[in-house]
Amino acid sequence: MLLAPLFSTDDLRRWRSCERRFWLARHRLQRGEPVAAHEPPADLDVALRASFPHADTVAPPQTPSQWVQAMRHTLDCLDSDEHLPEGWAILGACLTSEDRVQVRIDVLGAAEGGGLRLYKVRHATVGDDSDIDTVALWTHVAARCGFAVQGAGLLLVNTDFVYPGHGCYAGLFREVDLRPVLGARPVAHWLDSMRHCERGAEPAATPGPHCHQGEGCEFAASCKACQPPPAPGHAVDSLDILGREAAAHWRTIGASSVHDLRVEQLESPRLQRAVRAVQQGAPVIEPAVAAIARGWPHPRHCLRFDTIGMAVPVWSGTRPYQTLPFQWSCASETADGQWTEQHFLADGQGSDPRRAFAQTLLRALGTEGAVLAYNAGFERNRIRELAQWFDDLAPALDALQPRIVDLFQIAREHFYHPVMAGSWSFRSVARAVAPELDMDVRLDPALGERANPTAQSVYALMQKPGQRLPVRHACREALQAHGQRETVVLRRLLDVMERAGD
């Protein structure tokens, strides 16, 4: 390769976080090897067209020849002698500057009084420093191409927006003007430094939180200086399982782990249980909890909700990032010890599922029996919101509230297992009572989802417009299996409580 590949927005992002990451990516490109690039949200064009109804869209280029076509498309749009209507813009405008930088600009539109305005779109409520860097680079490239940039900023999600339905997204985004801060970004100097870095020897790494933010650095595995990702919890016998203040206190008097403590030194019964469990290498459960658990009336319903908050709402009457339930999973036990499983999962491409969610939930829970949930405030709030939305269902939904039992509160006051490592999250409790269960949502990455997906991301994949039926079917199976595993954890926790003292 006689000429190095042109710089891109991804190059600047890498260089600003770590020069070694930038250097390695550039040398990989020079060898003709692929390097991961940032992909804009798939539904970007749909939401933006409400604000820019007369927009032209430039297809994302993947090859040098496609870049040439994309730039020609962009320049043809900008060179038109026709009067530009209100709401005109170019979505995904592609430009290349004479200092060898090529960028794809989210929104390039006409500014009042002439010139252009450009925006970076974020499916978020706030931006960050990397967004300012990106807009500064885009402004630099547009100016080097001879365009008068009169405005530059971010388009962020407006959480006050209420989706009226029918694809009407006007008002979804709010504008944030970045012109006052762009002058502090010396883009030309950055580009010179990037060229010097690229031509030099491999730089030392600059480790920090950026090593694992987002999808993480693609070179982290081979970086000796890279800090390990944050551990999901503390070591089993770490003083930190007692809390930050308690851990600091015991370290000041010479303790290095929980094994250095005597149970009677601790005033809190909860911490005493934790220390006893760690020191004996086995769970501790107070016998008194058995009477509490056996007193919960039948039928007893182990209940879990899954929810999603979408940047671009798809159901009328909802707001961006509003917490919306899409799945409930319930295991019910009768007085004779028989268990039944019931589930609800909203159609990934149907209408607003909340009414069906509420109606099926009421049928499953009936009017009697305890409703057992973990961190039950979450389920309580979702039920309360459903009652506010559906007046005719409100009495029955409100009647569920007194029946709800928070297993988190009960377990916290009566149970501890060493594997919990000081954490009372649902996953930590799952490791304690159902260690053989894999609590991750499992979906074949070949279906278009990242590794280790969440229930929310799988549901979003399932409801993607035009999604193929095999993908939707696989998503549905994965989500239902996930919900069933969660109710198994609640059943196991209930069993541990009932058998306390046996």
Detailed description of the structure:
With 502 residues, the chain is an alpha/beta fold. It has three domains: 39-199, no CATH class; 231-282, no CATH class; 285-502, Nucleotidyltransferase, domain 5. The chain contains 17 helices and 13 strands. The chain has helices at 9-17, 19-30, 44-51, 64-78, 129-144, 179-182, 187-199, 244-252, 269-280, 288-294, 354-365, 377-389, 394-400, 407-414, 426-433, 455-462, 469-498, and strands spanning 56-57, 89-97, 101-110, 116-121, 149-157, 173-177, 284-285, 300-308, 324-333, 339-345, 371-373, 404-406, 415-416. The strands form three sheets. A six-stranded mixed sheet has the order 1-2-3-4-5-6. A five-stranded mixed sheet has the order 10-9-8-11-12, with helices on both faces. Strands 7-13 form a two-stranded antiparallel sheet. The termini are far apart.
